[in-house]
Amino acid sequence: MQCRGGGGMRGSMKISTRGRYAVRVMLDLALHNTGDCIKVKDIAARQGISEKYLEQIIALLNKAGFLQSVRGAQGGYRLLRAPEEYTVGMILRTTEGSLAPVACLEEDTGECNRVDTCETLQVWRELYDAINRVVDGVSVADLARQHRRHLEEAPES
Amino acid sequence: MQCRGGGGMRGSMKISTRGRYAVRVMLDLALHNTGDCIKVKDIAARQGISEKYLEQIIALLNKAGFLQSVRGAQGGYRLLRAPEEYTVGMILRTTEGSLAPVACLEEDTGECNRVDTCETLQVWRELYDAINRVVDGVSVADLARQHRRHLEEAPES
DNA sequence: CCAATTCCTACTAAATACCTAGGTTTATTA
DNA sequence: TAATAAACCTAGGTATTTAGTAGGAATTGG
Known about the structure:
The structure is a homodimer. In chain A, 48% of the residues lie in helices and 5% in strands. Chain A is mainly α. Chain A has a single domain (17-153), classed as Winged helix-like DNA-binding domain superfamily/Winged helix DNA-binding domain (Arc Repressor Mutant, subunit A), CATH 1.10.10. In chain A, helix 1 crosses helix 6, helix 2 crosses helix 3 and helix 4 (88-96) crosses helix 5 (120-136). The longest helix of chain A is centred in the C-terminal third of the chain and has 17 residues, at 120-136. The first copy, chain A, is globular and about 60 Å long. The interface between A and B is large, with 51 and 50 residues. The structure holds a DNA duplex.
């Protein structure tokens, strides 16, 4: 359905929907940060994402301490801190796990035995650094700012 | 066996063994670039990788036009061009597919409909650029140079 | 001819991605 | 107080991908 081209090679190094949706959720929460609770149902509707699936993703963000949750009727979620305080890197790490391109670079795990003689490790380290620099250099507030600028330039609906 | 910590979160954005082995193969071929053929069997032994699996990976590199192959007894492979001509990026792209972190950035495919209003796309684009800059900035010759320097500093065996 | 090699295709077990489904608990409100 | 609306929790389920195994056909050197 999504792979029409030739066979084979679809591409790894991908950020999964979990991570991408999580970033969009955080942005959504920042844009509707009026003080009162925001329901999963509303986010799902706005973002066009399955409600039940979003629930699970938000649960990860919640467990990470990013959100404040209110149970019961008229409950929902809101950002615990200011949008500036959340980087895309933080969000991706809690939902996707480590962003290291190879397991050897994982903080706790890994440590392959060929570490001293492995020339490729240096490349992976540079890659890891570059990835972290980008994702930690963008905050949810940056995304929100960009969204508002978009609206000004092309005001629709 | 490799995940001992807690459950959950293993980490995406990973380069698979295909890609990592491919880079090691190219480095191996560069280091043993004496002019005569190098057998898969020897590479597999030196690198400690399954012969049959390597065969398939090398087939990809071969089909991409990176190698010269000689069939039959005393056959094998050698680099078609100088090690300087191959970047890690080229190798990863032929074995792993596109290095784009999201499908929307894929050259031919993708083009999601929310392209104009998607603020997150900008982050993914920056990430894509950063990844490409790193992997295209390192050649197989660089890896070989680093290997030889390693040997000088700590000459073992 | 024989042995060594590349080449080609199919298969498999395990993990992962991306959900769906169904229920439990907690709080508001009619 | 009962109904309802929400968060919370856990267990699947299908399709795809990964990391190989396996087995043989085609090609060449000795």
